[in-house]
Amino acid sequence: MTAVVSGAPSLGGTVSGLLDVHAAEPDRFAALCGLALRDNPRRAHLVVSRVLGKHVPVAPADVLAAGDALGDAVAALLGGTVPGLVVGYCETATGLGHAAAARLGAPALSTTRRVHPGVPVAAAFEEEHSHAVAHALQPAGPVGLDAPGPLVLVDDELTSGRTVLNTVAELHARWPRERYVIGTLLDARPPAARAAFAERAAALGVRVDVAAVLTTALALPADVLDRAAAARAALPAAAPPPAGAPGAVRVHAGLWPAGAPTSARHGLTAAGTVRLQQAAGTAAAALAPALAGSRGVLVLGTEELMYAPTVLAAALAGRLAGVPVTTQSTTRSPVHAADDPGYAVRRSLAFPAPDEPSRLSRVHNLADPVAVPSGGRWSDLRADDVVVVVDTPAADAAPLAGALRPFAARAVHVVPVPLSEPAA
Q1: DSSP labels, 137-193
Q2: How far apart (Å, rounded) are the C-alpha atoms in residues 227 and 232?
């Protein structure tokens, strides 16, 4: 896989030592992932991907290359058969699933927690260990859950497999098919979980295969939850907020072509994905002059809206010669932040979610545009300009834009795009 941060320091050394958590292939694991602590009493650690574009800013080419690598792993397993549908899990794997679907030339769909009131919920299920458990599937138009052929479920990591098998059970009861494939960047199931996975799949009477970019195992001590509580108390505080002058806020309305799709929340055909990519290129061409002369641009997606901002970032990178462009996304996920060079989440910023102001959303690892973090440059991806892509009205994103101002030396650029609607 090419989508690895070369020469980057370990982002998991601190947590590995505190929790006594070890990967079976530590070098390959460290090239792809880091470790942080969750603020979740049910789970101790969080695997922080270097290539997903969620918790850590990443070059958009690396994010898309990770999707390509996963798509290639699925294609190798299927022997060239194009899947009937690729489903990415919200919120973390919506972009990954869409990128893998694009690589495979397959229709894409994502689960959602933003249920559209005008679209029937075709299926719903729970993610047992998550901080936000409810998922819904709301396909509409030409993409449906009854599509013939193998169905691919994409998640960024597989630690037990319960969530994906919950999904398979729900779907297979209503739209049975011969084969399912679970696509993931990291398959970290321990031997007992692999055995339980195979046993339940057999009980469902269906073939379920796993295609992974990296297969390893994380060894966890029996008292890992107690160790995590002690570790949170032992770590330093999060990195302080920037002290420099905050950037301005600029709203760029109307950049996204009318009628072009923005996500796979209600399903997109392969042709629909091409239209999205073309729309991102059009928006990038219009936005690039405002970013000329920048010393660094961060393109920030918002929760489930990941793929379109990543493609927009890639298009900007192609237009802004010599300007470092990175991308990541906001998240519902609360993560313990600590300003430690061997820790994967050094800073966390909370703000009212643009689509639901009554709850908090977060973004992790924003870099101070003035002060350089000590102990390594992995998170020192300073931005003169932060481009935040939202599928809400710009006014609803004002609290987010205000929170981002200290992390933009020049400006926060708000790019509203249409909310994904069912295809006509």
Answers
A1: E---TT--TT-SS-EEEEEEEESS-HHHHHHHHHHHHHS--SEEEEEEEEE---HHH
A2: 9
Respond yes or no on whether the N-terminal peptide bond of residue 91 is cis (omega within 30° of 0).
yes
Angstrom distances, CA of residue 24 to CA of 11, 192, 224, 309, 344: 16, 15, 17, 34, 19
Q: In a structure prediction context, what are the per-residue pLDDT tens digits for the chain, which is 424 residues long?
A: 233 333 334 555 788 888 888 787 888 888 888 888 887 777 788 888 999 999 999 999 999 999 999 999 999 999 989 999 999 999 999 999 999 999 999 999 999 999 999 899 999 877 655 444 588 999 998 999 999 999 999 999 998 898 899 999 999 999 999 999 999 999 999 889 999 999 999 999 999 999 999 998 888 888 888 888 888 888 999 999 998 899 999 999 999 999 999 999 999 999 999 999 999 999 999 999 999 999 999 999 999 999 999 999 999 999 999 999 999 999 998 899 999 888 889 999 999 999 999 999 999 999 998 875 555 544 457 899 999 999 999 999 999 999 999 999 999 999 999 998 876 5
Domain residue spans of the chain: 13-219, 248-416
Query: Order of strands across the sheet with 385-390?
Result: 248-251, 411-416, 385-390, 297-301, 325-329
d(CA 388, CA 415): 6
Structure tokens at 98: 């869409």
List, as one string, the DSSP characters of 388-402: EEESS-GGGGHHHHH
Please list the residues that pair with 327 across neighbouring strands: 58, 299
Q: How many residues make up the chain in this entry? A: 424
The CATH number given to 248-416 is 3.40.50
CATH of 13-219, one of 3.40.50.12280, 3.50.50.60, 3.40.640.10, 3.40.50.2020: 3.40.50.2020
Alpha-carbon Rg for the chain, nearest whole angstrom, is 20
